[in-house]
Amino acid sequence: MNHLSLIIKREYLNKVKNKSFIIMTFLSPLLMVGIFSLVAYLSQLNNDKVRNISVLDESGLFHSQFENKDQLKFEILENVSLEEAKKITEKSNKYGLLYIPETASIEDLSKRIVFYSEDSPSLFVMDNIEDAIQAKANSLKLTEAGLDAALVKSLKVDIDTQLETFGGQETSKLGSGLKLIFGGAAGYLLFMFIIIYGNMIMRSVIEEKTSRIIEVIISSVKPIKLLLGKIFGTSLAGISQFLVWVILLMVLSVAVSAIFGVDFSQVQSPQQEIIQQAQNSPDGMEGIFVDVMRELNTLPIANLIIMFILFFVGGYLLYASLYAAIGAAVDSETDTQQFMLPILLPLILAVYVGFFTVIEDPHGTVSQVFSFIPFTSPVVMLMRIPFGVPLWQQLVSVGILFATFMGTVWFAAKIYRVGILMYGKKPSYKELIKWLKY
Amino acid sequence: MENLLVAENVSKSFGSFKALDDISLSVPQGSIFGLLGPNGAGKTTFIRIINQITMPDTGTVHLDGELLQPHHIEYIGYLPEERGLYKSMKVGEQAVYLAQLKGLSKAEAKKRLKVWFERLEIGDWWNKKIQELSKGMAQKIQFVVTVLHEPKLLIFDEPFSGFDPINANLIKDEILTLRDDGATVIFSTHRMESVEEMCDHMALIHKSRKLLDGKLIDIKRQYKSNTFEVGMMVDDKDKVSKLLQDKFETFPATFKTINDELQYKVKIPESETPNELVFYLSNLGQLTHFVEVVPTANDIFIQTVKNHY
Fold this sequence. Notes:
heterodimer, A: mainly alpha, D-Maltodextrin-Binding Protein, domain 2, 4-stranded mixed beta sheet, 6 strands, 69% helix, elongated, B: alpha/beta, Rossmann fold, Alpha-Beta Plaits, 2 domains, 4-stranded antiparallel beta sheet, 10 helices, 14 strands
């Protein structure tokens, strides 16, 4: 067996057999599912709460507007003064009182509606109430102007621009969204992976120094082989852990939702709701599904998958080699702090460029340039590819990425070789550059 | 005798600091070669060049007649002064791993390890982790790992540090056995008594330069000063003292004896032979002690280094 595979094997087994590694591998999914279940359970509790609201409508225009819903119950108060209504509402322990005064015109009304409650009402409640009043008020205004509300509605024109490339390929805004989601997910995954496993590689490179075995090892193998072996071995261990996590998470979430009846789809952030609302097409859910499938079919799936793997691996290896270089330069983990930020900055930059510039103009100069710079290309190029990037550009970018990776490892090996000559001294950037000349 | 290792005009600088300045050395096949020098003299740098951890700026190193190449690491066993083992790995698998890196097959490594572990009576450590062992125990394993691939050239940097006298002796005997089996040994140490005991060749490096090298005996001859330690029973000590001091260059001497005698170190001129001194002394009284003062490695070390300050 040659040196590289020996080192990879040792690094891998050493990581995988480590007790804390094993514990984390199996405990993390449990914790995550546990937390998610808790959140889901809590938001269910929250949603189940029914809010009773009294309505005092002196204008007499909106009686019919307030329909009871699952979480909102309306009670119309009649023939009481505002003061009495307040008292009644407070006594009966209701959520709040909606007061609609009688006014000369509907314009006046819009400013004078008041909602009384114990403390500030939730956005959800106010949205519901305002929607109900607004709809009625609008149609009242139309009638006032002598227009038929139904007629106006039928006259309204919805513009939905169809997008098509010169090649005749149909695209759509939904498609753009999907592409962004793909690029964003890929970038985010890479980001997480680097943050979780980059440190592991760095620690593994420092290991030889803290255990003082470095000189024995380095007299048997070339530093570059040792570093490559460490990067590959640790990455494989990371991938194994990641796979176990994914599988365990899937199994556990299915099991938990089956046993406890917790519905994970209810754990939603406000953004997701907005996206959903925006996508509400007249065809309903089935329509969206069909649209999504159609859009997916237009994406260059094979290209995407292959490039995703290449850029993910390349990007990960590049950053891993930077972590390895830091490990090579220092003696102990406490000395690594000063080097951390410079590593993460390009990655953060890549994500920002991806989300702001690529969305704006996938083939603009900025996007193009950043999709070739190796430190940002894994994120930016991956986000560009769904919008159509010539193959040669993709290949050049991948080539640059892997060449830079090898360059960084070489650089790290150089630092490593010199680093062993100086135990116990914290290197400055200036010294690092000097070391390269040795 | 053929030379296993020949270094010619090796120089190495780190920035503006010159670590090795034009060093040429020959290590004869089958010798135990002491590489001596004060701290920071450049010994470790020289050893690292042999191990191809660093490259010389100028100069060449030949091993067994060939210019030093990457595959030569299999012929070299190196025990550095800064040494350790992977803390979380088990003794056995760690030793097998390190042996594999030196080019042994897994099966062969296991076989040889069993033999060595038996020999050093550490067989029951196989499944222990390094962190469970004491420092001396770990050193034993490092020694085994260093010699396991039966290298032609063994390089030990302070091999006895961390050993108790019993284990130091054990290791010393093992090194001598390895030499007898045909290995060549380079020894870097500050412990002069082990140089005296084991080395047949030596080189002294000081401030990046080689000050002297050669056979230990030759060097000692070179440094001998025609001085003899004498002890004699005389009637009148003062009178004889006076006579000796007038005739020769003398130094006070103390050595253990059963007699109450006059003790001196006497230096004779180049032109005189020891026989003439003995003849002269025996006329003055009863000669009980007559030994040539042979410079120790320690003396040579201190004297040479001091002369070059």
